[in-house]
Every structure is written in structure tokens, then in C-alpha cells.
Amino acid sequence: MSAAPSAAAPRGNLFVALLLAWLFPGLGHAYLGKRATALLYAGIVSAAFFLGLAYHGKLYVREPDHPLTVLATFACYGAGLLNVGARLLMENTAGNILSPTFEYGCAFLLTAGMMNLLLMLDAYDIFTGAKG
Which residues of 90-111 are buried (b: 16+ CB within 10 A; e: fewer)? Predict the structure, then answer.
């Protein structure tokens, strides 16, 4: 199957749409004219990210002795500016492993990043006309 743009595909630049989609949840959809969807996605992903922080989750970084932290770090950075801003503004990005909600916090943070990466793919599909 080819991913050629259909006649109803939105106008604009694909690179800009994908960059905006990564920078902040829903921003790529807003750029593509899907404003209501953009607000909904921004709310869902942002809420998941901030719940992860509130539950003392960890913003992962690659650790040489733990190879799976590469994947977790990728997932965290998938949240775009939410992740970057949290890393810049917070003193402790390692979470609190003694907190009873630590695992939930990690799950919320990782899920928020992965959801935002999926939203980038959704913006790609919208741009190419594969999705209406």
C-alpha cells in the first residue's frame, strides 16, 4: 500500500506537523485542523504525565548497567516538552521509590510518552490521508 496523500489530505508541512505533535500533545492535530481532537489529546496525555509526577514516578535516563532503561528513556522523551520541562524544573527526577505510588507514577509517565508518540503516528496518517 502506498501512503500517497489523498485529495482531502490537509495542507501544510509534514515535518512541521510531526514536530509539533512531539513538542506538545495535540499540537500536531491542531496544526492539521483537528482542534477538538487536539484539546482532548492534550488533556489526556498531560493528565497522565502530571499524575505520573504526582505519584512520584521516575523520569528515566539511560543507565549502562540496565539496558532496558534505553526503552524507558525513549518513552519518557516521547512526552516532548512536558518531559523536558519537568527535567529542567524538578530537582529530583528519579522519583521516590519508597512511595507506595512509585510504580503507578512510572507507569503513567511511560504511558504518557508512548501515547504522545502514537499521536505523532496519528498526525502522520491524517496528513497523508490514510485517516480522515
Answer: eeebebeeeeebbebbbbbbbb
**Neighbour tally for 131: CB within 10 Å:** 12
How far, in Å, CA of 18 to CA of 114, rounded?
15
Domain count, the chain: 1
Count the neighbouring beta carbons within 10 Å of the beta carbon of residue 33: 12
Q: Which residue segment(s) compose the domain that 19 sits in?
A: 14-128
Span 72-89, pLDDT tens digits: 999 999 999 999 999 999
For the question of whether the overall pTM of this predicted structure is more than 0.70, the answer is yes
CA 17/CA 13 separation, integer angstroms? 6
40 by DSSP, 3-state: which? helix
Domain contains 79? yes
- Helical residues (DSSP H) of 24-93, grouped into ranges: 27-31, 35-54, 69-77, 81-89
**First-to-last CA distance in the chain?**
17
Taking every pair of Cα atoms in the chain, the longest distance, rounded to a whole number of angstroms, is: 55
